[in-house]
Design goal:
Oligomer: homodimer
Mean pLDDT of chain A: 94
Radius of gyration of chain A: 26 Å
Strand order of the largest sheet of chain A: 2-1-3-8-7-6
CATH topology of the largest domain in chain A: Molybdenum Cofactor Biosythetic Enzyme, Chain A
Largest interface: A-B, 89 and 84 residues
Order of helices and strands of chain A: EHEHEHEHEEEEHEHEEHEHEHEHHHEEEH
Low-confidence stretches of chain A: none
Strand content of chain A: 25-35%
Shape of chain A: globular
CATH class of the largest domain in chain A: Alpha Beta
CATH architecture of the largest domain in chain A: 3-Layer(aba) Sandwich
Amino acid sequence: MNAEIIAVGSELLTPLRQDTNSLYLTEKLNELGVEVRFKSIVGDEREGLVAAAKLAMRRSDIIIFSGGLGPTEDDLTREAVAEALGLKLNRDPQLLAKLEERFAKRGMKMSANNLKQADILASAAVLPNTLGTAPGQWISGKYDGQERILLLLPGPPYELKTMFDAECISRLRAKIPPQHIARRILKIALMPESQVDARVSPLYKAYTDVETTILAGAGEIQLHFRCRKPSQSEAEARVEELAGKIEDELGDAIFSRKGETIEQIVSYLLQMRGMTLAVAESCTGGLLAERITSLSGSSRYFLGGAVVYSNELKTQFANVPKTLIDKHGAVSREVAAAMAEGIRKRCLSSYGVGITGVAGPTGGTDQKPVGLVYIALAGDEGTQVVERNFPGDRKRIRTFATQQALEMIRRALL
Amino acid sequence: MNAEIIAVGSELLTPLRQDTNSLYLTEKLNELGVEVRFKSIVGDEREGLVAAAKLAMRRSDIIIFSGGLGPTEDDLTREAVAEALGLKLNRDPQLLAKLEERFAKRGMKMSANNLKQADILASAAVLPNTLGTAPGQWISGKYDGQERILLLLPGPPYELKTMFDAECISRLRAKIPPQHIARRILKIALMPESQVDARVSPLYKAYTDVETTILAGAGEIQLHFRCRKPSQSEAEARVEELAGKIEDELGDAIFSRKGETIEQIVSYLLQMRGMTLAVAESCTGGLLAERITSLSGSSRYFLGGAVVYSNELKTQFANVPKTLIDKHGAVSREVAAAMAEGIRKRCLSSYGVGITGVAGPTGGTDQKPVGLVYIALAGDEGTQVVERNFPGDRKRIRTFATQQALEMIRRALL
C-alpha cells in the first residue's frame, strides 16, 4: 500500500518553518509496511487544499492531512476535504460538550471560533485529542471504486504523534496486509563520517538486500539498516548478520545498538552500577543538565549541578580556587578539572563533570579561539580532561561539548 | 507571481532525509516578491513526476524542480518534464564535450550513463554547473496560453545554491515586475491561540490586502503579517497600520515587535537596566539556563545558576531550609519562592528565578499531578510565585515553565 502526506499551513511555505510531522508519520507507516509515495505542502487556502485532496484520493491508498484543524479562520482542512469528497460536515454535540468542558476546567470561556472544531465529516470516526482542542478524523471506504483511508490529524507535533500512536496505528494494522520488515540502528559518537564510512562501506555494500543509510549529526553518526523479506525471521537474520559484522569492526566506538540515545545509555549504565552524577557547566550553559534530565526518572542518578558562568560562581558552587582561574584563565584544562572535582565533592556524587570553553561567536582570541572547549570527568579513579576544537556555530559547539561529556561518562562506566 | 517547488528523490520520502533546498529557494523567491504556493516531494518515478509537472504548469507561474538530474537510471526529471510539456530532448554536443573534458581532467572515463546529462529540453537555456556534472535548465514561454517559467536545478544543496544565485536570480528579476513586500512579526507569550485570535481577528480581517498568519508554540503565539504593494512605502504603511491596531488591542501582552525571541527581549531589558539574573531549576533541569545562555554575550547579565534536582542540593545551592521542604514538599509555592530568593542571595544577582514542578510522565500524584509547576521570581520589589498546570508531554511542560519564567522576568523589567 502507498501513502501520501499533505501538510497544511502557510507557515510551512515560508523559509522559517518546515513540515517535520511527515518524517514521524513516514517512520510509522514504513513500520507497517506502507511506503510514502508523495508529500506535499499546501497553504491555508481552500482551492489549493481541495485540489490536493482530489489528486491524492485518485493516486494514493492512504492519505494523511496534518494541520489546519485549529479554531481560526485559516484552518480550512475540514471544509476543503468535505468539498473535495462531496461529504457533509456535521457538528457533533458530544464533541462540543467536551470542548466546553475543557475550557471550563481552565476557567476560560470558549470562543465562538472553537465551535467548528466539533465539525465532523459524514461517515468519519472521531479520533480523540487528549492534548489539544482539535479532534482527528478517520474515514475509510470506497472512493471512485478504490479502497481509500483518509486521516485528518492536528498540526502540533506532540498532538499528532500522540493521536497517531494511540488511535491510528491499530486501525491501520487492521486494514493493511502484514509486512515483514527488519530494522536496526547503530550509533557512534565523535568519529568523522568519512572515517566511519571508510571502515563500514566494504561490509554493507556486500548486502544489496539491506538498505543502509548513514546520517551525520553534531558528534554522532547513525547507521540505519532496513530489510524486507517474505518472513520476519529472514529479514531479521539479514539485518543482524550485517549489523554484527559492523559491530565487530567498530567495537566499543558504537554506543547504541538498538537506537537508544546516548543520554539513555548513560542513564542505564549509571543505574546499573548504582552511581550518581553532578555537572558544572560554563560554556554549555545548562545544556548538559538539560539533556540528562530530559529523561523521566533521571532524579535517580542525576543529583544536579551548577551553571557557573561567572568566575565568582565557579568558586562558590564548584570550589574552583580563585588563584587557579587567575593563573590559567577560566577556559583552561586546570579549571575544567577543578570544576569536575569541585562539583563532585559539593554534590557527593560518584562522578563530576566540568565543561569550560568558548562557544562563540564572540569572545574568541588567538590563544583561545571559538570552539576551544575543555571537558573534564572526575571519579574515584581520578580526573581526565580532554581539549577539543569543535567546528560550527554556537549551538553546534555546545552540542559537541555535551556529546563529548556524555561519551566520556559512558566509557568510564563500561 | 506564484511559485511551486518540486523536490525529486525517493530518499526525500524516507523518515531520514528532508528537502531543505526549498527553504533556501523560498527565501530568495520571497525577496524577489514571489510567493511559494505549493511544495511537493516526488520519488524517482516517471509517472508521479509527469503528473506533478502537469499540475504545476496549470496552477503556478514559476515551477522549480530540484534533483533528479544525475546520471543514474533513477534520475528522471528531464524525461518526465519533456513528456509533461510535450517537448523534445536534444543531446547538446557542446555539453557533451564539456562533460567528457571534466572526466578526462580527473583521469576517469565517462560512463554511458552520463550521456543523458547532456540532454536539453527544446527551447531551454543551459545553466552551467560549476560544481557538478548536472547542468540546470531554464524554460520560459507560454504554456496553454499562460506565461510560465520552468527551472530544472540539481539536487545537492551547494550545487543548487550556487547555480540559483549565479544564473537564476538575474534572469528571474528580468521577468518579474518589481515587487514591494513589507513584513512584521508580533509575538505573545502564554495566551491561548483562540483567545488571541478572538481579540485580533476583527482587526486583521479588515485588512484583506495584508496576509496574516498565526503560529502557535508552547507558550508562544506569533502573528505574521505580509503585504505586497506597488511601492515599498504603501506596503509598509498597511502592515504598520494593522500591527499598530493589534499592538493597541493586546498592549504589553506582546513581548516582541520585530520578531525577536523572548530570550533576546529579556537580554535587552536586563542590559538596558544594568541588571543581572540567576536561576535555580528543579523540573526544568537546566533548560532555562540553556535558553538564556543560547545568546552570545549572555555572560553580561546571566551570572549562572543551579540545577537542584535533589532536596539536598536545593538546600546547599539555593539556601532552601530543609524544614520548608519537609513541611510543604519539594513541589510547592513556598519552595519555589525560597529557591528564587536563595539563588538570588547566593549569586548576588538583581533577580532570582526558582522553578519546581512535576514534568512527568512519571512522578505525578493526585495532589501534585504531572504538569503542576511553581515559578517564582525574586527581586528588590519582593517575590512573586505563580502556580500553573501545563498540558502536554515532558518536553512541552518544561518549555512552558521556562517560557513562563522568561515572561515574568520581562514583565518585571517593563
